[in-house]
Design a protein that fits this description.
The protein has 354 residues and is α/β, with parallel strands linked by helices. Helix content is 34%, strand content 18%. Helix 1 (25-39) crosses helix 6 (178-190) and helix 3 (96-102) packs across helix 4. The relative contact order is 0.09. The structure holds thiamine diphosphate (TPP) and iron/sulfur cluster (SF4).
Length: 354
């Protein structure tokens, strides 16, 4: 028997809903409700937040505590709720216009801060509620009410922005690829941190018909032609790929790598000769001697620097000296020094450290 218990999470007494027949939003609402039900997320432990738009009406149809925020502010409200009530599950249901355009600034910074909330973006590539204007994700060339000759701006690539750093969770799916869609919902809900599901969906009335599609199903077939599923967890998605990008935090790996490098450096430093400032002066490049300079207690051999090649020796006044102060005030000075081999330590510094 088909399990219809997810309906307990919907306010069926408010039906019929406001959406046009064939609109993809119904599929988003239903499949998110199924995902929540499977994990036991309910009115006791879950809050839903929406912004403004046809998609933004979803929260009002869920049998959960819901906040219908001003346009573009769904993420700010969601993050605030999660901050004061970390015990609650917090989900966001909204549209690409609300989240990516007027709410774009909040999307960037919520993503950066990585709160444990899950966003389901009904990405119909248009501003539906207001009549079908081109929005942030409208593909180039699309004819809309505000771009009758075809949209000439490049769309916002959520797949690139929301996978640009670790940790992250970004999934792209469509309302047509139902099994894939369900997997993305479940994975996103289970992810600890900011997760974003970009659901390619249809606005048949104010986008599809202008594009020449007679039914929502024709639009679904178009999604099937435009996108293909890639299996497994990826570190990025191309513009025509449906799949999941999940990157874990890199903090621990970095800490280990640093320890290893530090260890090697210590061994290296122990084997280096100690030079006084007087002794350093001797290595000034004259009579075939190498050119040494001091920097932050270490001595570098900069003889191979292009500045000291050929007959005309430039800047010989710097050779054989402690240049710490000069290098610290020079743009990129430090980066340049580290290209040269470290050959010793300055005695003053080494003794001061004891
Ligand atoms: C501050 C403000 N600016 C503009 C609007 C008009 N407006 C309402 S919904 C909307 C677009 C919503 O687009 P999207 O999030 O893609 O939702 P859809 O209707 O396509 O589901 C706009 C521009 C508004 N309500 N408030
Ligand atoms: S206008 Fe478009 S997005 Fe809004 S309910 Fe109708 S089909 Fe859906």
């Amino acid at each position: 028997m088909i399990d219809r218990s997810y309906k307990k999470l919907l306010k069926l007494n408010r039906f019929p809903h406001t959406w046009c027949p064939g609109c993809g939003i119904g599929a988003v609402l239903k499949n998110v409700a199924i995902g929540l039900k499977e994990l036991g997320w309910n009115e006791q432990n879950t809050t839903v937040v929406s912004g403004i738009g046809c998609s933004g009406r979803m929260a009002g149809y869920m049998n959960l505590d819901a906040v219908h925020t001003p346009h573009g502010r769904a993420l700010t409200a969601a993050e605030a709720i999660k901050t004061v009530r970390p015990d609650l599950n917090v989900i966001v249901l909204s549209g690409d216009g609300d989240l990516g355009s007027i709410g774009g600034n909040h999307l960037l910074h919520t993503f950066r801060r990585n709160p444990d909330i899950t966003v389901f973006c009904n990405d119909n590539e248009i501003y539906g509620l207001t009549g079908g204007q081109a929005g942030p994700t409208t593909p180039e060339g699309t004819k809309t009410i505000t771009s009758p000759r075809g949209e000439h701006h490049q769309p916002l690539r959520l797949n690139r922005i929301l996978t640009a750093k670790s940790p992250c969770f970004y999934a792209r799916t469509t309302v047509y690829h139902v099994n894939h869609f369900k997997t993305c919902i479940r994975e996103a809900l289970l992810y600890k941190g900011f997760s974003f599901v970009d659901i390619i969906s249809d606005c048949i009335e104010l986008n599809g018909r202008r594009l020449g599609f007679k039914t929502a199903h024709q639009m679904f077939k178009w999604f099937d032609e435009r996108f293909h599923i890639v299996e497994g967890v990826r570190d990025h998605l191309e513009n025509d790929e449906l799949g999941i990008v999940k990157k874990e935090a890199e903090v621990e790996v970095k800490a280990e790598a640093k320890t290893e490098v530090e260890g090697k450096l210590e061994v290296l430093i122990e084997g280096l000769k100690l030079l006084t400032l007087e002794e350093l002066k001797h290595f000034d490049g004259t009579n075939g001697k190498p050119i040494y300079i001091g920097y932050k207690g270490n001595v570098y051999d900069i003889s191979a620097s292009p500045l000291f090649q050929g007959e005309k020796r430039m800047r010989c006044h710097i050779a054989g000296k402690d240049l710490t102060r000069d290098i610290e005030t020079a743009p990129h000075g430090e980066d340049l020094v580290y290209h040269f081999p470290m050959v010793g330590r300055l005695k003053v510094k080494a003794e001061a450290e004891k």
